[in-house]
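A common beginner's mistake is to predict each chain separately and then try to dock the pieces by hand. The better habit, illustrated here, is to supply every component at once so that their relative placement is modeled jointly.
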Amino acid sequence: MSGNEAIALAAYEAGVKVASGYPGTPSTEIMENLSRYEGVYTEWAPNEKVGLEVAIGASFAGVRALATMKHVGVNVAADPLFTASYTGGRGGLVVLTADDPEMHSSQNEQDNRNYAYAAKLPMLEPSDPSEAKTLLKEAFELSERLDTPVLFRITTRVAHVKGVVSKGEMMTSAATCGIEKMPAKFVMLPGNARNRRKVVEERMGELRKIAETDEYNRVEAGDRKRGFITGGVSYLYVKEAFPEATVLKLGMSWPLPEEKIKAFAATVDELFVVEELDPFLEHHIKAMGVACHGKDCIPNQGELNTAIVRKAIDPGSAPKLFSAPDLPMRPPNMCAGCPHRGVFYNLSRMKDIFVSGDIGCYTLGFLPPLSAMDSCVCMGASVTIAHGMAKALGAAGKGKLVSVIGDSTFIHSGITGLINSVYNNSASVLIILDNRITAMTGQQNNPASGCNIKGEPANSIDLEELCRAVGVKHVDEVNPHDISACKTALKTALDRDEMSVLISRAPCVLIPEMKKAQHIPYLTTTENCSGCRSCVQLGCPAISWTPLTPEEAEALGYKKKQKGFAVITEVQCNGCGQCAALCKFEAINRKGE
Amino acid sequence: MGAIGNILFSGVGGQGILLASEITAYALLSAGYDAKKSEVHGMAQRGGSVTAQLRYGEKVYSPLIEPGKADILVSFEMMEAARYLPYLHKESKVIVNTQQIKPPSVAMGQVAYPLDVLDAITSQGIQVVTVAAFDIARDVGEVKAANVVMVGAMSNFLPMAAEVYEEIINTRVPERFREVNIKAFRAGRQTSS
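With all components supplied together, the output reads:
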């Protein structure tokens, strides 16, 4: 099973009773899998801060609790995280961060080991799915034994790696479920917090002792000419690149076992610290007065692998490789029939506007041929960046600032930005791309979907009413597949002197109901095609262009100057009809019409 | 450490690469190997280039295949085979679905699809087996089973018997797709045996 499946199984076996998270690659499948186990309450929270606070509450009530998020989600949850370090809890509390070195599906590759140092919390870090299962269960024991939240860090190559994992024993929490008032610990007024601050330091002292003796951190004996200190997935690359060498494997990334590290360093001729991203271990090891190699040879960007580690340490060892021919790139694209395409097509036709984007599938609106996104920073930043630009530009920005955000991202952290825009009198346009689902991470339900994590009926937020309630006077809804209605709605909104919200409403083609539905595809009548390329400009993966030479054009009965014709691949078409609306030559029609 | 076998699956998001690599991984596990598989979810799956990496042997540490070390490359799309040439060595076996899926720049008519793309592999002396997996899958009744046709074609280069794969399809694939997937597997296995 995958690392994420193993973590879900471990949480179940550890006796977790409450788990909350926000979807984010590569963490999403943990909560999805955990939701299928009996006896564990799971939920999708609107954002990571909410999710962590829910888990803290469950811990205060004396049950084991888990919060899951991707690395950037910890930034959102950092506020409760730093103070939960002071309060501790009652039931075991684990905060899982899934980091994404190489940014396979992320906007940055921050190294969340730094949070363990900054928040004064222990961090455990497995190397593969099997170890993830073992370590997560130990994390809950550690949390209760030391009265501390435990940070649990995985990376993409643990989360989405599949390996052999065994089922284990069920565990129970040492805490009892119930209301227990512990004001000195739970009420972080300055007076109490100052006392807890001392407790945090005492706890870190205890944790340092545990780091020295516990099996988390182990020496694997071997050739002592070179010694390696490593952890997480980097350990695997070291074992493959230098199978004969001695290794100190750190399963606990923070705090570090200073005595163990010094003793290990003394036994080897040359010490290498191998870690992905930041020189986290290296800096702390050097601060102990231990000389080592680290980022002087190991890259500090992107993922590592066996070849990179071997070459970094033995530069002459790199094998000669075949080189790939020059090939057209294959970037990701919005799906055929994606409702977002209709909005971005219209935005791409509007001159001089600035489109402030957000995080989701629709960020792909940046790519050609639509190329209709001018900024993307973090969750919820679309509406706020547009507002900031509006205030900076003044009259020069009128009618030029559009922000786009998905339904899930709007609920995550777009609402507060919209409140700011209304309160502080912005005149930009916010488009909420409501496709009913958190699509990019694999179609998770959210508070606007009408279903909970298990797919059971749930309250559904009325986005239109919500926008009106925070004071937006102009809230309109549009069907994004209706290209011309979408264009009119956008122009009307941009002409206003007040904040407008346009809700683009059509379901994602990947949600189960849409996948099951029988879509009637559109087909091309190629003899009617004039080669105008209007449909091709949509960038739909179901539409392709066949170029023609003048001779070929004539032979097919076209005018000699026609440069080619468009064809729809029937099996790929989801029948949205956006292309048919753009065709002025009766060359695209619904099948059977 | 014993020798590690490396199988690289490449193709385009949505082609069923994850299921194909899953069936192969279970087949290797039931033959007594340790195995690890790495894949990437999220944004890359939206029609972009996708790989799954499968490694097997007595004890597997790294989930990632090193460049120059892939023993088998199974490409679900023709051009995607050549993209991973740096992962191959002289004795690699390459099994290619001859289906062509146009990337955006080709679909837009900006560049042509490189029809001679497999020459880049064969000119290095590497064995290439071509499989018309899409057509074969259509003939057995389900175009979406092209991925299992490819598993069948690849299975000839691994030591396990056909029954091992069929048992896995029978236990791991939803019931209504089993029969067509068994047919697809057998048709694929016949292509390169």
